Amino acid sequence: MPIHTAPQPNAIAEHDAWRDDRRAAVTAPLGNLALVETRWLAEETPATVDAAAAAIAAEQPSGVTVTTLRRTHLDTGQDEVGIRRWDANAPAIGAFDGIEVFPYDPAWVQTARFTPVDGSRTVPFEHIRDNGGSRELVVPGDIVFTRDGVEYTMSAFDDGGTLLLVFGDATNGRDDESGSYGAGRFLFVQRTDDGGFGTAGEVVLDFNRAFVPPCGFSVQYNCPMPPPQNRFAGDLLAGERIVRFREDFDLYAV
């Protein structure tokens, strides 16, 4: 069940502060809007990619940062390395007009139970740029709760030591004021104790802090999409909805 029934002034103030932090984060020099290129370097290896990135960085104008990344190739299963270019003056930053959100609603602060699983369990997540392909992500336990009489068992994956829930609902892709980002939304899971992935305990899903994934800000991201068990049948009217840009800006034409 939800853990709050009426909005508290401090909760609303904290939510407003979170929104301010989000705006600052996505417009930062290494924020979601700044990513202008993701390039995979077939000729490089984990041992040589840093030097390759340094050479590319040396050719960039002021305000551009180059970082490295790696992933597992879907077909070969081998490590694949690449670079990302971040531009503090990216067109998307200049055209950014804010993130639309649903009104804060304490009824969408949901308690749940986290139950760990033995070993390193993985769950396949389809990714937005993989043409239907799936990548195995480590899901260290189940998140179980009941909402509107329906019991859900959802899978949140390990995102650098924090549980990240990728979920979908009936608002995704809807083209009206109740619509949200088409590919689903993200939410960090909050524990109510100091337990880690290996211990069971209560968690909080504050869906007011659901956020548009990075791929809603730049087409250079390859975001995971909600697996079937992470989809709500109805509307989840909380959290961020969509990213707004100036009318003359086309994110997909950049």
Written description of the protein model:
By secondary structure, this protein is mostly beta strands. It has two domains: 32-95; 100-244, no CATH class. Helix content is 13%, strand content 35%. The protein is built from three helices and 14 strands. It has helices spanning 9-26, 49-58, 91-95, and strands spanning 35-40, 64-72, 79-87, 96-101, 109-116, 122-126, 134-138, 141-147, 150-159, 162-167, 185-188, 190-191, 201-206, 240-245. The strands form four sheets. The chain has a seven-stranded antiparallel β-sheet with strand order 11-10-9-8-5-13-12, with no helix packed on it. The protein has a three-stranded antiparallel β-sheet with strand order 1-3-2, with helices on one face. Strand 6 and strand 7 form a beta hairpin. The radius of gyration is 19 Å and the shape is globular. The protein starts with 8 loop residues before the first helix and ends in a 9-residue tail after the last strand.
Sequence of strands across the biggest β-sheet: 11-10-9-8-5-13-12
Query: Major β-sheet, in short?
Result: 7 strands, antiparallel
Compute the average pLDDT. Answer: 94
Distance between the termini: 43 Å
Strand element count: 14
